[in-house]
Amino acid sequence: MVDVARLAGVSHQTVSRVLNSPEGVRPATRDKVLKAIKELGYRRNMAARALVTSSSRLIGVVTASSEFFGPASTASAIEAAARDAGYGTLVTSLQTSDEVEISEAFGFLVNREVDGIISVAPRTGIAAAATAAARSVPMVVVADGFEPQGRIHVVSVDQELGARMVVRHLIGAGRRRIAYVAGPDDWFDAQARERGWRSALEDSGLAPAGRFSGDWTAESGYEAGTALCLQIAAEGPQRAPDAVFCSNDLMALGLLAAARDQGVRVPQDLAVVGYDDTAGSAFFAPALTTVTQPFEELGRLCLEVLLSALEGEPGMWHSVSPTLRVRRSSV
C-alpha cells in the first residue's frame, strides 16, 4: 500500500479509503490511486484485513450436487455477485443431502470462520441443520417454502407463481385436462410447483388430470410420458389429459421422447410445458414452452440479503418472479 501511495502522490490513508470507501474520495484522486494499483499489480492482503476488521470477507455456500440445474445456476450467480462485492466464496457441494451430510457441511464452513452462509440445498432435511448453524453465523436459505426465523433469511424464485403461469397459459390455449409430472417430494421447489398447479386448477374450476412421480431426470420423464400416453390411448381424446406440466425441463425432454415413441403428437394431441428454461430447451422437438428463472437477479439478492443479515436484520422472506417463455410445444 505504501508503494501505491508513493506512486500516486497521496497518503496511505487515502489509498485505504479508495479501497474501502471509494465514494468518499474525489474522482481525480481516486483515478490516480486506481491507476497506481493497476500499474503496480497491487493485491490486498485479505488475511491482514481480516485481523483488523474481524471479517474474513468469505461467504460460505452450500449447494446440492452440480448435476441439478437450478442449484448449480444459483450457486454460480452467488459467486459472481460476491466477487463483485469484494467477497470470496467457499463452496461445499452435497452428494447425498441427508441430514448428517448437511450438518457436516455447515459445520465445515462455520469452522472456516465465514462471515455468513448461503444454502442452495433446497431439500426439506435442511431445516434442523440450518437452524443449528444459524446460531453461529447469519444465513440465507434459497428454498421456496422454508420459513424464515431468527438469523435465517429465505430467498427464492416464486415457484408457485411460475406454476400458476403455466396452468393459466394452458387454459388460455384451450386445454382443460392438465396433468403434472412432479419432482422429488422432499424438494421445497417441487412442492411449491405442485401447489401452484393444484391451486391454479382449483381457481379455474378444473380437476387435476393425473399426477406422475419423477426425480428431475429425463429417464423419469420418459417413464411418466409412457404411462401418460398409454392413458391417452385407453381413455381417448375426450377424457384423457390434453396437456401436461413437467416440473423441470429434463423430465419434459424425456416425456417428449415417450410421446414420439408412442405416436402422440405434441402439441396437437398433448401440450407440454417444462420449467427452468435450460440451455437447449428452445431446440427440443418441438421447442419447449418453459419457465425462466432469473438466476443472476437471485444471486445478487442472496448476497444483498446476507449483507443485511450481517448488519443484524432479522430473518425475512424475499422473492423474485419467474417469466413464462412460450414456444411450440404448447401452442
From TrEMBL:
Has UniProt tagged this entry with the keyword Transcription? yes
One MF term from GO for this chain? transcription cis-regulatory region binding
What keywords appear on the UniProt entry?
DNA-binding, Transcription, Transcription regulation
PROSITE patterns (UniProt xref):
HTH_LACI_1, HTH_LACI_2
Per the UniProt record, one Pfam family is Peripla_BP_3
Q: Which domain of life is it from?
A: Bacteria
Question: Could you tell me which SMART domains the record lists for this protein?
Answer: HTH_LACI
HTH lacI-type domain spans which residues? Answer: 1-53
Q: Which Gene3D superfamilies match?
A: 3.40.50.2300, lambda repressor-like DNA-binding domains (1.10.260.40)
Signal sequence bounds: none
Query: Record keywords: Transcription included?
Result: yes
Instruction: List, alphabetically, the InterPro entries matched.
Output: HTH_LacI (IPR000843), LacI/GalR-like_sensor (IPR046335), Lambda_DNA-bd_dom_sf (IPR010982), Peripla_BP_I (IPR028082)
Q: PANTHER family given for it? A: HTH-TYPE TRANSCRIPTIONAL REGULATOR GALS, LACI-RELATED TRANSCRIPTIONAL REPRESSOR
Q: What is this protein called?
A: LacI family DNA-binding transcriptional regulator
